[in-house]
Amino acid sequence: MEIAIKIDKWVQELLLEIKQNIKGYDVYLAGGYLRDQHCELPFKDLDVILTPNGEERSPVLYTPKGYGMLYNKLCEDNNDMKKRGVEMLVGLYKRKPSKYVDIGSLSVPIETEQDVTEIQYIVYDKPMSVEALTEDMDMNINQVMWRPTKDSVINGAFPCHCTEDFVEGHEEGFIEFSHWYDNTRMYLRQKRMIEKFPAYDIYDDIDLTETEKIDLAMKGEREYEGSA
Length: 228
Description:
228 residues, disordered C terminus, alpha+beta, 29% helix, Beta Polymerase, domain 2
């Protein structure tokens, strides 16, 4: 099914730029940003899905102007990712502020929402339909996807593909996993969603073993960040 979601102008332009410069892949904006726009909440980052489309692929994934590479992780040792067909995660960061204000003789950078936004490419190893990709998102409240286009519906809103569970989850207020995988990552993903949607009911109990609790305490939460 489709739902209209407003997308910031700079996000539209950024996704169209990525689409134009990454060859051999279909490009989608997925999950968190669209979810938060739908719920009128602040967002953290942009998740960009890349699926091969049968054409010759770009040898190097495109880095938009002003961004630098934060990480590049192959998923060959991650059984959860491999099973779903995710072969690589690439993280990008904003290099410098895009706006400055003159104070006396100095030009002082102004931090904007765009400047603090990270981008993550989630690269699949096989062609997938937008329906399959949307259903592959980890939780019902994240199952929404936009294929970059210049054609908005009205006032900057664009038709986005979503599941019935996405609509029901936000209308009725519940969080449910659509896939089961690494226990620690599921625990942390659920924790972040509970913090963002404290009034929602939680349908899945995630209990860490003592070993997992110790491992998490030693590695820290940043080891498990990412939205693939």
